[in-house]
Amino acid sequence: MRYLPHTEEDVSSMLRAAGAEDMDDLFSMIPGNCKMNGSLNLPEALTEWELNALMDGLSEKMAVSPEYKIFMGAGSYNHYIPESVSYLLSRSEFSTAYTPYQPEISQGTLQAIYEYQTLVTRLLGMEVANASMYDGASALAEALLMATRVTKRKKVALSELIHPYYRDVVRTYLEPGDYEIVELPRLENGRTDISGVAGMDDLAAVAIQSPNFFGCIEDLRTTGAVAHESGALFVLSFTEPLAYGLFKNPGCQEADIVCGEGQSLGIPQSFGGPGLGMFACRMKHVRDMPGRVVGKTTDVDGRPGFVLTLATREQHIRREKAKSNICTNNSLCALASAMYMASVGGTGIRELACLNYDKTEYLKRGLSEAGFGIPFDSPTFNEFVVEFGENFKDTYKKLLEQRIIAGIPLVTWYPDLPGHYLLCVTESMSREDMDALIKGVRS
Amino acid sequence: MKEIEELFLPENVRYTEMHEWTRDDGDNVTIGIDDYAQDQLGDIVFVELPEIGATFEKGEEFGTLESVKAVSEIYMPVSGEIIAINEALEEAPELINSAPYNDGWIIEVKPNDPDEINTLMSSSEYLEMLKGEE
Prior knowledge:
Chain A folds into two domains: about 70-80 and about 345-440, Aspartate Aminotransferase, domain 1 (Alpha-Beta Complex); about 85-340, Aspartate Aminotransferase, domain 2 (3-Layer(aba) Sandwich). Chain A has twelve helices and 14 strands. Chain A has helices at about 10-20, 25, 50-60, 85-90, 105-125, 135-150, 165-175, 220-230, 315-320, 330-370, 395-400, 430-440, and strands at about 70, 130, 155-160, 180-185, 205-210, 235-240, 255-260, 275-280, 295-300, 305-310, 385, 405, 410, 420-425. In chain A, the strands form four sheets. In chain A, strands 2-8-7-6-5-3-4 form a seven-stranded mixed sheet, sandwiched between helices. Chain A has a three-stranded antiparallel sheet with strand order 11-14-13, with helices on one face. Chain B has one domain (about 20-115): CATH 2.40.50.100. Chain B is globular, with a radius of gyration of 14 Å. By secondary structure, chain B is α+β, with helices and mostly antiparallel strands.
């Protein structure tokens, strides 16, 4: 494939049309210190077989499931993907995933996105969902910006139990603007301490994550009530939507905006991306919602059809006054999750959620009986924190040799929690896998 | 769209370059968009209104109008405090198209300076301005 399709003749005729002598002349308005001098630091080109060998070598260095038993979650979850999802997704009708402007030739894609939105609102118990965003982290940042628009306030309160990377992305979005971010500490039971919210003025949003970074289920209803008392919106973030197959959905617990990562629903982990930003809110705030929305309508002959709707919020119409500068969605990932939700079905999602919960409880009990502390006693879904102690590093390495990855050390993000590890169990783990881990950490 | 001669530009209100009208009601003024603006925008489908009690400077944006074609901001013709909003527009934004000077009014304002309204254009001055823009 040619990445530079223009011949020298094409280039010089374009330069003539632009009135430039050569390329340097064309780019002369760019300051010298912003231009790159010299060549790119890239290795020599490889043949296809050399490249394959290189990639094979790289992949052998990785610890991947199912060869390794990976008890790691923290925002990326190893769930089984039904074959129907991979098959449907590979259909050529879906291979151009670009958001469709032309409804007259895009009914299939538009209908699929509409079904995705419908499934998202049902899973989360919300009134309206957008056509998706980049990932859970940027969806949270957009949700907070939306809350500042709705409330016309500038301060947001974030739980320290929101995924650390999500909080980083929020800071990237908000800090250059005229916004203030306050962090809410945690309680001893592994939930967010919301007692400080009542004393905060000018609050646009109270944001927590549930299940939170420690795997604990937060008290949504109380958080919502406290947020609303201070005139703020209640923003709920999530990294594991499957939890709502078992636990009460955020919509019936006061949430105003619900946003998070949909990778769990039929999207491979792929070393961290691409993800799926799920985003839903109350209908009364829809005009402040970022992102694309597909609506159902009727054509001139009264036949049902699907179109992009409420586009006046968006950048291509509204320019600098748009509600967000996102003017796209993650269509292919959104379609994968819609296919996953439809394949598994409501009953299936509940059964799967129960399986995740039960297996996690099995490991939690096993580790507890083996003498390890479970420091946070709030209910969890498929992740929990265990205190292996500060001398665990050697055991961790030994387990790695046995192809078992015993979770993620929390001290990286929570310096006051040395020796604490975050463990995850999904349906992909068998009892033997968990028994092997328990046996390994005992020795 | 209407020709300039076809526009209804009543003489009991004052006009701005941004196509809002302002009517002197004694202590307060009533504000809306004029026949030219509603005609240019086309069918209005949504009106975003300010909060009662909010204060704005002259020229500041106080709301938005969304039509099937575009979104436009609406600007304060005079400085003052919002004392009433036309809540009927939430359910029936098309009133702005059908009756821009009556049922389609947008806000009522207590002006900071009651004389500021006199700096706005009269019907004939506004008509001249529109002709100049053609």
